[in-house]
Amino acid sequence: MKKLLIIFLFLLCLFTFSFLIQAESIKIYPAQPVVITAPGQNPDGIMIKVVLDQQGIDYNYLPFLQANELDNYPTLILAIGHSCKGVGAAGVNFAEELTRTKNLIQEAKNKGKFIIITHLGGTGRREERSDNLLNIAVPNADYLIISKESNFDNYFSKAAQKYNIPLAIAENLSRIKPILAKLFKSQSQEVAYFINGDQKEPTIFINAGTHGDEIAGYQTALKMLEPVISGGRIIVIPRANPAAIAAFKRNAPGLANLNRAFPGNINGTQSEKRAAEIFTLIEKFSPDLVLDLHEAEEFNYLDKNQLGQSIIAYQEEETVWQGAMVTESLNEKITDLKEKFVLITYPVSGSLTWAVGKNLNIPAYTIETCRKLPLNKRVDYQIKIITSLLSLNGVEVRWP
To answer: How confident is the model at residue 28 (pLDDT cuts 50, 70, 90)?
Structure first.
């Protein structure tokens, strides 16, 4: 009996510890601006709003946020909990809130948003209607933040384990502040990458998030983790520059342009060190093709000094030929002249594409969409270009 008790306590500690470390091991951090809404019209959204305001995080609080309003927000916070008083005061009913939550989740998933689910109301707000909302949202979360009281029945612990979701449990409401502060201010000291596909040849490397305000790039990169990859594999860095993404700025605050620092210098500036970490990772995998995802402010068609809607190829014959094929094929289906893509063959010195082609002799492209297009259209263009280049290199993509 004593041995069984010891084993039980060990497993209990292990189980508990696993959830304590889940929140610490997150490698993908949410980007700004953030939009907050509170399904069930509870006051938790106001509490989150106050914390983000104190941290200087760019956010918008929209109590009646609709799915069609998500476009310009890479991060969605759903502060879930049904409040009879709140719903009554807002003039809505539970069925409407349930539908609104379903639509928000579906749109956020479709567009690659980072979804944070919070429940801070404790046992008093874990009644049937709240749980109905949670059952819709929790399986789709990228991160869970809850109060200890809310987890009285281990609902969130079990969900975190089942769906592999990082979970942060606050002992009390005052501990919500450091959790959110760390989540949005974190700077990964390692290069977080993901592999999709189990065949090593050919290997295609996709880099995104070098500039923190170029949303389509890192949303596309995350999207490329969803399909079934056959005939090779893709290695994806969704957020190459976490500090810039967290600040929603082109460059990390106080730092130089990362895309002018390649191949980098491990003993140089912070930007050069980061560039060297990424470049070393590419060297390690020795891919057959490297794709770097970016965005520009204006259409190249309207201003030749701008790169919007361009594919920039390192000036090597096969690379240029494949780039030309993809550009021509894509443009056949584009009717608006300004949205047509142009092939450029001189990547700027210091860029990842330039460094990979020059130093590693690996075919490389920079893909640039125009930020004046709707976000979903930019992501769609980038996915089409990626899948076309993958196909030319013998790698097939099958979407679920």
So the answer is: low
